[in-house]
UniProtKB/TrEMBL annotation:
One Pfam family of this chain: Proton_antipo_M
Residue stretches in coiled coil: none
Topology of this chain in the membrane: Multi-pass membrane protein
Keyword field: Cell membrane, Membrane, Oxidoreductase, Transmembrane, Transmembrane helix
Domain (NADH:quinone oxidoreductase/Mrp antiporter transmembrane) ranges: 121-416
Localization (cell): Cell membrane; Membrane
Name recorded for this polypeptide: Multisubunit sodium/proton antiporter, MrpD subunit
Main location: membrane
Bilayer-spanning residue ranges: 31-50, 71-92, 104-131, 157-178, 198-225, 237-260, 272-290, 299-317, 329-347, 367-384, 404-425, 446-472
GO terms for cellular component: plasma membrane
InterPro entries reported for this sequence: ComplexI-like_HydComp (IPR052175), ND/Mrp_TM (IPR001750)
């Protein structure tokens, strides 16, 4: 039974290799079939695997690689496999005229398998190895266009990722030298150790937080993310909504709550330092987004700010804030991928990339831009949207811990979010030629249907969030 854990990991990797050497006419059908099959394989693992450990490689106590899906990992895995279906359909239209389609499709599918490996990792060393392997399989996607600029930005992506990896590696070595284990355990593995050296573990925590925070676009290690917008829009959507930055966030959750433990971190005062970094990320991301005229870069800097919300839920150390952090990880994923899909449709069908170029585009693409407007409202956090639900929990968590700066920061950032998204909506719907003089031209169904369905999911998740909250509560009860 436990071998089932390997199926959603290996299947997309094998599918990608098959696509690389198959007839180009079969690529689209193979991509669609693989995405759906892997979604069901993931669900089978989620519902049938109960605390079963699958060792994949063991050299020693430290090089002990195994998978052990738990509630948190299963939540992340379902998110990944679900959004991969939408991105697959979207990619078929967007990439139809691109070169190197076999190569793109191979690494696209392999990225899914590696991301699910991160979700199911049973200890920190397993997560770390697949976390770095994710850099290698997404690098070809970042440089897909093959231009000099893409290659230069690809180098930047690699450098940032490997610098973060170096920080994490030092942290792992220091941690293992004291604990003798890197296993995941609710509440952390350090609690039973006597005579804890506070300064030592503070250094370990900061090394791990900063190192893992690089992929989560933590300021000041964020510059790679906006630069990576040189990649095709489906890749940008994956980087921001599913694979890379969410893997960074997920890894931070694992390190904070399942390795060191929030009580230890609070006792050594580590969260006082990381809260500063997180709050700076929230504000700086918003201010930088407001100053960008390029639509994809505006959304990229927005991601830096929104990821700060999730990290805020990790460093406040309250059950409500933890729930809010996971909710925002899920809601930001569905909302931001929708926004990127809308902007990608504008780029693909209208060949427009700048804010001043999209005047009146809401009259030519009413469905696409209505979905963009609704998803923007979700990201701002206006009730009763999904963004409001997650931010409400974050605010409550801050108040319960006596941290009044959290709700103030959330309110301020919501205003800033409106400041960089509302101008896009305003320009699209309230400027340009009268509607009667414009021919409506929406994107093809492979693009439009995922946009519409995801927008509906964003709305429904805000109106009926209790199912998700109840699932997350199962994880939070083990930690607090």
């Amino acid at each position: 039974m436990k071998l089932l854990i390997l199926t959603p990991i290996i299947f997309p990797i094998l599918s990608g290799i098959y696509i690389r050497f198959s007839d180009e006419k079969k690529i689209n059908k193979t991509l669609i079939a693989s995405a759906f099959i892997n979604f069901f394989l993931t669900l089978i693992c989620v519902f049938l695997i109960k605390d079963e450990k699958l060792t994949i490689l063991r050299f020693s106590e430290i090089i002990n690689l195994y998978f052990l899906p738990d509630i948190l990992g299963k939540i992340f895995a379902v998110l990944v496999s679900t959004l991969w279906i939408f991105t697959t359909f979207y990619s078929i239209d967007y990439m139809s005229h691109e070169k190197k389609l076999r190569s793109y499709s191979m690494f696209f599918m392999m990225t899914q398998g590696i991301t699910l490996s991160i979700a199911f990792s049973g200890n920190l060393i397993t997560l770390y190895l697949f976390y770095e392997l994710l850099t290698l399989v997404t690098f070809p996607l970042v440089i897909q266009t093959g231009t000099d600029r893409a290659l230069q930005i690809g180098k930047k992506y690699i450098i940032y990722s490997f610098v973060g990896a170096t920080f994490v590696l030092f942290g792992l070595i220091l941690l293992y030298s004291q604990t003798g284990t890197l296993d995941f355990k609710p509440g952390g593995i350090v609690g039973n150790i006597k005579n804890i050296d506070a300064s030592y573990y503070l250094m370990v925590y900061l090394l791990l937080f900063v190192g893992l925070g690089v992929k989560a676009a933590l300021v000041p290690f964020h510059a790679w993310l906006p630069a990576a917008m040189v990649a095709p829009t489906p890749v940008s959507a994956l980087l921001h909504a599913v694979a890379v930055v969410k893997s960074g966030i997920f890894s931070l959750m694992r390190m904070t709550y399942y390795v060191l433990g929030w009580e230890l971190i609070e006792n050594i005062g580590g969260n006082r330092y990381t809260q500063i970094l997180v709050l700076v990320s929230i504000l700086m991301g918003s201010f930088l987004a407001m100053g960008r005229k390029n639509l994809k870069k505006r959304l990229a800097y927005s991601t830096i700010s929104q990821l700060g919300y999730i990290m805020l839920g990790l460093v406040v150390f309250d059950e409500s804030s933890f729930t809010g952090g996971i909710l925002h990880m899920l809601f930001h994923a569905t909302t931001k991928i929708t926004l990127f899909f809308c902007v990608g449709a504008i780029m693909h069908y209208e060949n427009k990339t700048e804010l001043e170029e999209i005047q009146g585009i809401g009259k030519r693409m009413p469905v696409t831009m209505t979905c963009f407007a609704i998803s923007s409202i979700c990201l701002i956090g206006i009730p009763p949207t999904n963004g409001f639900v997650s931010k409400w929990h974050l605010a409550i968590g801050g108040l319960e811990r006596g941290n009044f700066i959290v709700p103030v920061m959330l309110l301020l950032s919501a205003l800033l979010t409106a400041g960089y998204l509302i101008p896009i909506i305003s320009s699209a719907f309230f400027r340009g030629a009268p509607s009667a003089e414009i021919e409506i031209k929406e994107p093809g169904n492979f693009m439009l249907v995922p946009i519409v369905i995801l927008t509906a999911i964003n709305v429904i998740a805000g109106i009926m969030p209790n199912l998700l909250i109840n699932i997350i509560d199962q994880a939070s009860k083990l930690l607090f």
